[in-house]
Amino acid sequence: MTSEEILANARALVPEIQRRSGETARLRRLPLDLIEKLRAAGVFRIMFPRSWGGPEMPLPQQVELIETLAYGDPSVAWAVKIGSDSGYFCAFLDEAAARELYPSIDRITAGQAPPNGRAVRVDGGYSVTGRWGFASGCTHADVMVGGCLVMQSASEPPSDMVA
Questions:
Q1: Which residues are CB-neighbours of 56 under 8 A, at least 6 positions away?
Q2: Sheet of strand 158-162: strand arrangement
């Protein structure tokens, strides 16, 4: 799907998004069937690179997409902006880990990147503790992000790495 096709798909959804804004407000989240229509429209894949099969949508078109959706309902635009960060987050991961976390470029991400947790190295990975507040889009996210300070051990100060 190209950037232009995604923009056209989003424009076609605006009338339905407008009609359903009251429902969205009552639910205090986006209706799940609307999320699936947005997913099918390609709006959550915008930041994925061409090497992944994504559109690698330029920033001006990303802004146009979000603005277009906001005419329908600003909360839809907000949720799409947050959920479309998947391709961005992949750039910071080892390729194999990114492909495991995102087997589809239409997966939706939510969460908080500030390091409100600690990840202590243990055999086979990390033990994570922390406290994160509400994350926009968490009710329909496929992947949740929680920023952590990476610790060598529970008693040592954090390393330079933030996960």
A1: 47, 48, 49, 50
A2: 125-130, 109-122, 143-151, 158-162
**pLDDT exceeds 60 at position 160:** no
Q: Is the pLDDT of residue 163 over 60?
A: no
Distance (Å, rounded) from C-alpha 118 to C-alpha 28?
Answer: 31
User: Rounded distance, CA 43 to CA 158, Å?
Assistant: 37
Number of H helices, E strands in the chain: 7, 4
Prediction pTM value: 0.86
What are the chain's domains? 3-89 (1.10.540.10), 107-162 (no CATH)
- Greatest Cα pair distance in the chain: 56
pLDDT at position 157: 63
Q: What is the DSSP letter of 37?
A: H
